[in-house]
Design goal:
The chain has helices at about 15-35, 40-50, 55-65, 65-80, 105-135, 145-174; strands spanning about 55, 85, 95-100. The protein is mainly alpha-helical and about 170 residues long.
Amino acid sequence: MVSESGHDNPIDHPDIRAVHDSMLDGLGQLADYFGFSKVLGQLYGTLMLSATPLSLDDMVERLDISKASVSMNMRSLEHMGMVRQVWVRGGGGRRKYYEAETDYWQIISSLLNGREMRDVERAIHVMTQNSKKLKAAMPEMADENQAVARVYMQRIAQMQTLFQFAQLMISSIL
């Protein structure tokens, strides 16, 4: 089978098709689990399994989804460093072609260093601010409210320790 761009798409063998579809489904579910769209995972899988760069039109055709959805999700994948635009000889002047980043360590490092580290740091900041707020307000609280505030502060401190450990682990991986 040949796509409209002329690139080989050898997924007409039933076993290859089954593995291909299973991979796209699995990557779609994985993307969904981490809060991204399923389409984003399927697009990455489509590029990852392709031996040649693909255009947006190729991906629209292969996944049978709208070009707007492909375009929007490809921008996200590019921003995350999971795909890159490449030049293709004879690929048509304005048509953009993409290939998947296959250095998986680079992808994980980029994702952890970006989104995950920011989320952990933000959570630590919120917990620190909340603890300070409770500590400052405690002297003016009734005894029963002080007891509740102490429980809050203890639980926040426990969670903060966990998030600081996560921050350390992410930093050590990177």
